[in-house]
Amino acid sequence: MKKVLLTSFALFVSAVLFAQIPTKEKQALEDLYAATNGEQWTQAWELNQPITEWNGVTITDGHVTAVSLMFNNLTGSLPSSLENLEQLQILELSFNKIEGTLPSALGNLSKLEVLALNGNNLTGIIPTTIGNLTSLRQLHLSSNTLTGQVPNSVSELQNLEVFNVFDNELYGELPQGLAQNFKLQELMVAENNFSNTQRFSVVILANSGATIDLNETPDFIPADNTVLAIEGPEDEGN
Known about the structure:
Layout: H1 2-19, H2 23-35, E1 57-60, E2 63-68, E3 75-76, E4 90-92, E5 97-100, E6 114-116, E7 121-124, E8 138-140, E9 145-148, E10 162-164, E11 169-172, H3 176-179, E12 186-188, E13 193-194, H4 197-208
Parallel strand pairs: 2-4, 3-5, 4-6, 5-7, 6-8, 7-9, 8-10, 9-11, 10-12, 11-13
Antiparallel strand pairs: 1-2
């Protein structure tokens, strides 16, 4: 009996230790909860429960690697402390009511592979620090109210496969460096006011082999990061 109790206790301790994450990562999650009115979420976190029980949070090897809270009634703004989720690979917060600007601190998430904030109320510019996300494969910022120009720093995202800024208030020229990305498979830039989409489409087709028609508006925006075959904007005002 004593041996059984000791074994059970060891397993319990092991499980507790496995569920632990660094204090700053837990605080970043709690900051997100507080900044986006977590008590009003469709599926709210029970903060007194183990983090492994928190909806949409994935923990791998003692670190938060994914936060996926689509359609969960997040309201408010994104806290800069999200940068402390140093092992985060997926941040999926699409189709909520998040407002304010994109924190430049997001550029410190060096492991991030998917950043998805479709269908929120974000304003302001795309920060130049987005170019620091060299592991990024998918960038989804559609259906917000982002303004300004796409920063040239996105040309540094050499692993980018999906670039989605459909339905914002962006203008100017798309960075030519983005067109030279051989991994780019999906481009959705319609419903903005870009000035060089025709030249851009030719370069992309030549370099990446992607099937992209920048003269057509997509029929719908996927909610699950699905890659579409035909994407792109109308050349407004040209």
